[in-house]
Amino acid sequence: MEASTPSSTRWPAIAKDLASFPVRPNLTDYDEAVAAFSWDDARGALDGLPGGGVNIAHEAVDRHAASALAGHEALRFVRADGSTSSLTYADLSERTGRFASVLRGLGVQRGERVFSLLGRMPALYVAVLGTLKHGAVFCPLFSAFGPEPVRQRLQLGSGRVLVTTRALYRRKVAPIRDDLPELRQVLLVDADGEPEPGTLDLAALLAESPPYGGIAATGPEDMALLHFTSGTTGRPKGAIHVHDAVTAHYATGRFALDLHPDDVYWCTADPGWVTGTSYGIIAPLVHGVTAVVDEEEMDADRWYRILAEQRVTVWYTAPTALRMLMKAGAERAAAHDLSALRFVASVGEPLNPEVVVWGEEAFGHPVHDNWWQTETGGIMISNYPAMQIRPGSMGRPLPGIVAAIVARDTVGAPVQHDGEVELVSDPDATGELALRPGWPSMFRGYLNEEERYRTCFVGGWYLTGDLARRDADGYFWFVGRGDDVIKSSGHLIGPFEVESCLLEHEAVAEAGVIGVPDPVAGEVVKAFVELKPGVEASDALRLEIIGFARKRLGAAVAPRLLDFTTALPKTRSGKILRRLLKARELGLPEGDTSTLEAGR
Ligand code: AMP
Q1: I need a labelling partner for 289 at 20 to 30 A (CA). Which of 5, 23, 388, 509 fits?
Q2: Residue 526 is part of which domain span?
Q3: Residue 598: is its pLDDT beyond 70?
Q4: CA of 490 to the centre of ligand 1 (A)
Q5: CA 370 to ligand 1 centroid distance, Å
Q6: Ligand 1, from 355, 379, 492, 497: best to mutate by most atoms within 8 Å of Cβ?
Q7: Which residue range or ranges hold the AMP-dependent synthetase/ligase domain (predicted)?
């Protein structure tokens, strides 16, 4: 169904010509694919464990290692100097077996949590898959986190083992180690025989471990991964994902990323965030393709060089990075041979229509936006290679996914009648994006927070917390967050976590934190701070407080901007009204202020 462009965008739709594709897309007719799809069929494309059950590491690694793909390159790491090192599926199987064997030797039990605090290096990928092989649960932490987010997540997740480097351990873990009584072993990937108090040398343990032999007989509902995400209030939430999620990683890799056997695929996300695990590790390996991993940080020329030199065919990246490339100019791309590239996708934040279109100029392909979140575990809404793109739209739900727009009342709660939520039927009317539960990669809980999990589901729908609309032809359009959570450079940041940290500074009495628009990062974190009586505001103090927050939270989470104020808007019950803070900052209408404390 190819309908006209809705009036809501001035960007013309981008039509596709099937004949021009170098390989036939996996999804050629959307309606047909949706009608024909079943999760059981998708499961049928996987192996399952010999004795029954399912294990992600078996589907991603071992079954390929036992096939003609054994010698095929699974992971290709691009080092700082542009040189590469590779692991074949056979190598990966052997190494992950040894890692699993180390965990067994340490007495790690099924379901116990193994954390990582590592950059994108081979040891990280081996640790993720080796942990799954052993039936333990993996929780990756972003290596740019400061000690505070690391402490909170290790505590909340009852981390039993941590895999890290000596430098990260010294800077971020050693100072808080006493707060982590459940953390029994810290494995250093770069100990080089030099003892570091309180840690073990992973290389030495791997060298003396026997091959694992077999794989843990996990069931589809056994916990496999724990990904922390942030909410508006309270502590970070540990979203639980199970081994059956691999069914969704397989299906979405097929339809939304259009993976084909000989692809060289590059996902630029860090595994510290869910995209880097679901689509930087699991989906490509399940498809038996070669996944490129850049060990370095983003840089326009470096990235174009990687696309060209590694002959990347499918590229999955993020709006902030694309905006940075756009800023650097399309002529930078023209200097490189991007002829291998056949599909470009993006996720994580709103993707500006101009970037979608600019992709055609720079890469020879428009950018295909898709939408999902930590809780969904995999892509839910997507633009497909063979389907018309409406620039600015997130696309249409994946086969197997039912999405809808739920009406909200004036305080943002879903409108309900007799236990049923009211679905918005008007095309283009805004409401909360909701999904019908039941897809395999759906989170199965927030660790130890049953109530917080339960409240995500109303009237048989999972409420995503995002505002969106659906046009008459079923394309979904992102409108905004329904809560106060901040998205900066694709990273979800809970304002409460930042406010709590600021309050620890001796000069700070109150703090309110919001996201303010930024042309490249989407949003940047801005703090409004009330000082304690008698403390003078000054530029030096502003810098000191920002520095204090950066040290504790890490640069990715700490506020970039800080203003002093004497009147944070609060409700009569004392809750900071971030919505109002934001409206005032941006000069927008203040909306309903009936709960506002007098004089604010
Ligand atoms: P996370 O759980 O960190 O992956 O963040 C998920 C959130 O990122 C979603 O709930 C959205 O608010 C935002 N997001 C993800 N993908 C998109 C997209 N394609 N367009 C707009 N926002 C997005």
Answers
A1: 388
A2: 486-586
A3: no
A4: 8
A5: 9
A6: 492
A7: 65-447
Ligand 1, atom 7: nearest CA belongs to which residue? Answer: 373
Separation of 102 CA from ligand 1 center, angstroms? 36
Atom of ligand 1 nearest to the CA of 465: 10
Same domain, 468 and 544: no
Inter-residue contact 273 to 267 (CB < 8 Å): no
Average pLDDT over residues 48-71: 97
What is the distance of C-alpha 128 from the center of its chain?
16
Residue 338: closest CA among 315, 367, 368, 370: 315
> Which of residues 448, 481, 514 is at a domain's end?
481
120-141: average pLDDT: 98
Domain boundary among 163, 190, 216: 216
At residue 9, the pLDDT reads 62
Ligand 1 proximal residues by C-beta, below 6 Å: 229, 274, 347-351, 369-371, 373-374, 394, 464, 466, 478, 481, 487, 492
- Concatenated DSSP letters for 491-518? EEE-HHHHHHHHHTSTTEEEEEEEEEEE
Instruction: Tell me which residue has its CA closest to atom 5 in ligand 1.
Output: 373
User: Mean pLDDT across the chain, nearest whole number?
Assistant: 94
Over the stretch 449-476, which tens digit does the pLDDT of each residue have? 999 999 999 999 999 999 999 999 999 9
**In this structure, are 95 and 170 located in the same domain?**
yes
Q: 3-class DSSP state for residue 156?
A: helix
Look at residues 373, 372, 370 and name the one whose alpha carbon lies nearest to residue 384.
370
